[in-house]
Design brief:
Blueprint lengths: L4 H8 L1 H13 L2 H5 L4 E2 H8 L3 H13 L3 E4 L2 E4 L1 H6 L9 H15 L2 H7 L8 H8 L2 H16 L1 H8 L7 E5 L5 H9 L4 E6 L4 H11 L5 E5 L12 E5 L7 H14 L5 E6 L9 H13 L8 H11 L2 E7 L6 E6 L2
Parallel strand pairs: 4-5, 4-7, 5-6, 7-8
Antiparallel strand pairs: 1-3, 2-3, 8-10, 9-10
Helix pairs in contact: 2-7, 7-10, 11-12, 14-16
The structure holds S-adenosylmethionine.
Length: 333
């Protein structure tokens, strides 16, 4: 929250800090320094950087806490080792690249979007299929989703009672990162993922990596046109926020029809608090509005309305302790 003019000055150029992070990930600085500390000249040579800006850039990374400077050499800080070096336990490189390469540019058109109400980089079915047909872009996109749902998955696993259910389908489950966590934590569950056909090779790759091949089945399809695979629980995670209220109702209706009596719908998203929505969720909401035709974050009360209209009994909504998501549960009696 800004309370004085200095705060406004800082806010006015907050994009510069983000761009320093973006460029460090795009140029592979953290990956390089994972091999060991290096001086500016060697970093420039190995990463094809011009020396004119490099020293200020590296010192800015140190001032941000992402590098540590010892004499003339730079090393990754602990947080950079965890979250910015590929393979690190909290790796966020996919998220940073998505912000650098797509979101940053669409946010540059916020004023235009505020005037015309139109998305600035639509992610409709055609656009998704085009994106997925480029293997490098698809990998980057899924890596962003993995990083985004990795915080949710263990909490979803722990905060919902999976014991009465035998199976689940993660609809729009990407390459199965959440599904893998669920079957690993609850071995009695059989997992299914429904997503666009182009996600399947990356799904197979991730299942092999996680040791869950055979535990989770991939179902290619369009969730607006094709039947959702039947299972005891339908998960819709970071999906409803991409669609208009009418389309959310349609997806919730479809989930109701696919579930057996006694089944459950579990949804997670950065839901907005009715009275005092927090800044992170509002930024998330504007982000999806900039990237999709009708999407935005929504309140738990809105989800409840869609669920009850579909025939569900609303059970609960719970803000998760880590990250910024809320899970909401609706039951089919
Ligand atoms: C924002 S991602 C969410 C992924 C994952 N559930 C998570 O929590 O990170 C939305 C997912 O929906 C998928 N998707 C989008 N439109 C779809 C459609 N019409 N049919 C099936 N899947 C679709 C995308 O491929 C993507 O994997």
């Amino acid at each position: 929250m800004v309370t004085d003019a200095t705060g406004i000055t800082r806010l006015n150029t907050a994009y510069a800090e983000a761009r320093i992070l973006h460029s460090a990930v795009e140029t592979g600085v953290f990956e390089l320094l994972a091999e060991g500390p290096l001086g500016a000249a060697e970093i420039c040579a190995r990463r094809e950087l011009h020396p004119r800006l490099a020293e200020d850039f590296l010192n800015a990374l140190a001032a941000l806490g992402l590098l540590v400077r010892a004499g003339q050499r730079y090393a990754n800080s602990e947080v950079a080792r965890e979250a910015l070096v590929p393979g690190g336990p909290l790796f966020l490189g996919g998220r940073v690249k998505a912000a650098a390469q797509r979101h940053y540019h669409t946010w540059g058109r916020l004023t235009e979007a505020l005037r015309d109400g139109r998305p600035k980089a639509a992610m409709g079915l055609d656009a998704m299929e085009r994106l997925y047909s480029d293997p490098a872009a698809a990998r980057g996109f899924f890596s962003n989703m993995d990083a985004n749902n990795a915080v949710v998955a263990p909490q979803l696993s722990a905060r919902f009672d999976w014991s009465p259910y035998r199976s689940f389908v993660d609809v729009g489950g990407a390459r199965g990162n959440v599904a893998a966590e669920l079957v690993l934590s609850h071995p009695h569950l059989t997992g299914h993922v429904m997503d666009l056909a182009q996600a399947e090779p990356l799904f197979d790759e991730l299942m092999a990596e996680r040791g869950t091949a055979g535990e989770v089945t991939f179902h290619p399809g369009d969730f607006f046109a094709d039947e959702m695979p039947s299972a005891d629980v339908v998960v819709l995670g970071h999906v409803l926020h991409d669609w208009s209220s009418e389309q959310c109702q349609e997806l919730v209706d479809r989930a109701f029809h696919t579930l057996p009596a006694g089944g459950a719908l579990v949804v997670y998203d950065q839901m907005l608090d009715d009275d005092a929505p927090d800044l992170r969720s509002l930024i998330g909401s504007l982000n999806v509005a900039l990237l999709s035709e009708g999407g935005s974050e929504y309140t738990a009360a809105e989800f409840r309305t869609w669920a009850e209209k579909a025939g569900f009994r609303f059970d609960r909504a719970e803000r998760l302790a880590r990250g910024n998501d809320t899970i909401a549960v609706a039951l089919k009696d």
